[in-house]
Amino acid sequence: MDGRVPLSGPGGAPVSPLPPALDGLGDLRPVPLEEVNARAALVARACRTYLVPTRLVHAVFAGAASRYGVLTIGGRGSFLYSSTYLDTPGLDTFHDHRQRRRLRYKVRVRTYVDTRTRMCEVKLKGARGGTDKRRAELPGPPDRLTERDRAFVDGTLRGYGLEPPEDLVPSAVTDYRRTTLVADSGAERVTLDTDLVGYRGGRSVRTRPDAVLVEVKTRGGLTATERRLHEHGLREVGFSKYAAVLTALEPGLRGNRWRRAMRDCLEPGVDAPERSEAG
């Protein structure tokens, strides 16, 4: 025995089942948020995305219990996220990403539905390709920034050498379920997203049920998870939830660099005429 315990919550209560697509991860040990942050906060990092068929999830993560734990809060091993993206009226953030500007940013309000917390986040992409994320707790609604929150966004952008935009307005919402694995070594954090639904106006798009979005976050080079992904013929894809949702739902937007990944994992959702960008 290696001293690990069955996946369980406080007081030994069973952890809520993981999504069906992730059944093969049910034997990972629970890791509290404090330990995840201590082991692999990885705020400044490289982040690479893979599209993994559900039929390969078990094979890719076979034996993962000897190397990884799963973030567990309140007996849950997967969590509902809702992200409201804020962009300029002309979608400058989207276009900067599409044109691969060396210095760019993304502003979103992320709601952790299960824990009822909300964060204003600024994701920064540097000239060397790394990602830096700054965040502050947001007590108000997700579709507008208070004066204090706007000061946080503007100060973050100026500190990075970017001029803040005059206006930021809600542009899209993504809802999904996330499971987070953290390596015992602290060398990587792996998120597995399922049940993604993106909204803009009265339209929606969703991930196919046979696809899992896997993001590998690390400060170093190729990780153990990525080596396993490569062994199964899976390679990094150019995919951004925000960019893919906008490209799929906004007529006339160019997004050729994401089309192949979108074809492999997205399908039209049910129209949601009353769905608000408030998340």
Q: Would you list the SSEs in sequence order as H and E?
A: EHEHEEHEEEHEEEEHHHE
Q: Residue-averaged pLDDT, rounded?
A: 84
> In which range does the helix fraction lie?
10-25%
Strands, count: 12
| Helical segment count | 7
The CATH topology label is Hypothetical Protein Pfu-838710-001
* Main sheet characteristics: 8 strands, antiparallel, barrel
**In CATH terms, what is the architecture?**
Beta Barrel
Structural class: alpha+beta
First-residue to last-residue Cα separation:
45 Å
CATH homology superfamily name: Hypothetical Protein Pfu-838710-001
Q: What's the CATH class label? A: Mainly Beta
User: Which percent band covers the strand fraction?
Assistant: 25-35%
Write a short abstract of this structure.
With 279 residues, the chain is an alpha+beta fold.
Defining traits:
disordered N terminus; 22% helix; Hypothetical Protein Pfu-838710-001; alpha+beta; globular; 279 residues; single chain
